[in-house]
Every structure is written in structure tokens, then in C-alpha cells.
């Protein structure tokens, strides 16, 4: 299966991977600026999000992204990942290091299992209870309240609400499929990496970002004091500038 995707522009490629409460529409605020900056920009919906159907057999998201790049003829790219998409980006960079020229991670999840904080477990337990009770609307609101930071207005909250509802529609209608376990060494990701965290995010994601400079050969960490979990939507102009700076010089961007 080829992931549903958009591609536009000319020049070196940048790939945008969405968070687990969004889909490729989350990158709307950055799309025009990145294409105008002389980049070929690719964004996709991972399986079970947006316009990509949920998995019907064991599969791996990083494999899907690699296959999409092969289909598009993209040999090398900067990869930008938000949250769940950040975990996928890290896996891509670790498994195919020669294909990733830069890694910009926005409140990334970890591609390897980690113990969850009590705060994160409480959110997931509450989500499970709402879903099992048939209250999908309540689960959507829980996700919006948890993952959208204080800088975001009603328009952003509604956008996340729409994308999360779509993900539930796809995923809850599909049969459960076990994950495909893939072994890789995260330290094999050699591309320059900027790991961004948000001061208002759950501690799990702040901890992941802060640890990456110790795990990767060429990584820096910066925390945004105003950000929640979705900084590219919460202050899109500021994060767009950061992305453009990173594309110009991955080791100099703030």
C-alpha cells in the first residue's frame, strides 16, 4: 500500500510526518513556506490516519515511509516528525542513515519502549475507558485538552478535534493487528538532529527530547517555554522560521 500523500515544489526534499492525534493536514501552516524555500515537500498520512486506511496485517510505519520515498524517487531528505511521527522519523534515520540528511523532531515519541509517566498512563487509561464506554466524542475532547498547548486558539483546537475524530473512525472500525517488531539501533541515526520539547507537554516527551543528545552522535535539544505538544500548530509562524533555519543549517538553528 502507498500512503496517501502530497508532494510539491522543487529542490532538496523535506518529509513531514504527523503526530498521533493529527494527520498530514497539521502541516498546512508550513506547506507554502517550505515549497517557496526551494524544497520538494512530501507529507503523508500514516496508516490509520487521514486518507490512509488502517493496517490489515502486521506492518511498520518506517517501512511505509521508505516505500513512499522509493515510489517518489526521493533518495535523501530532511525528515521532520511531530510526536508519533517523530518516533517514525527516528526509526527511518536509524535504519537508513544515508537517506536522512537532517532530523527535526517536535515533541517526539520514542521508537523504543519506555516506561510511561503516571500522568501519561492516566491519560491513556481515561481514553480507554471513554472508548470502551462508547463515548468517542469524550475521548476526542480528552485528546484535544491533553495535547493542545496554551498558546493555541479555538481554530487549532477544532483542527485537532477533526483530525483525531477521523483517526478514531478509521482505527476503531478496523480489526486489531499486532505491531511488526523491528530491531534497530537508534544510535545509528547519524544525521544532524534538533530535538524540540515543549515546557507545557507531558514529562515523557520532554524527557525523550532531553536525552537524545546522549543517544545520537549529532543531536541538540531545545525546549520552547511556551509550547505544549504541538508547537507547529500552536505558534506556526515561529516554528516555520525554525524549520527554515534548520533546512539552511541544521547545526545552527535554534
| Multimeric status of the protein | single chain
Task: Tell me the domain tally.
Answer: 1
Strand arrangement, major sheet: 1-3-2-4-5-6-7
User: Which CATH class applies here?
Assistant: Alpha Beta
Q: What is the annotated CATH architecture?
A: 3-Layer(aba) Sandwich
Number of E strands? 7
Work out the helicity level.
Answer: 40-55%
In terms of per-residue confidence, which ranges show pLDDT below 50 for 5 or more consecutive residues? none
Please, could you describe this protein's structure?
InterPro entries: AB_hydrolase_1, AB_hydrolase_fold, AB_hydrolase_sf. One of its GO terms (molecular function) is hydrolase activity. Residues 14-239 form the AB hydrolase-1 domain. Pfam families: Abhydrolase_6 (PF12697). It comes from Actinacidiphila acidipaludis. The protein is an alpha/beta fold and 254 residues long. The chain has one domain: Alpha/Beta hydrolase fold, catalytic domain (Rossmann fold, 3-Layer(aba) Sandwich), CATH 3.40.50. The protein has 9 helices and 7 strands. It has helices at residues 28-36, 61-72, 84-95, 118-132, 136-147, 154-173, 203-215, 231-234, 236-248, and strands spanning 5-8, 13-17, 40-44, 77-82, 100-106, 193-198, 219-224. It has a 7-stranded mixed sheet with strand order 1-3-2-4-5-6-7, with helices on both faces. Helix 5 crosses helix 6 (154-173).
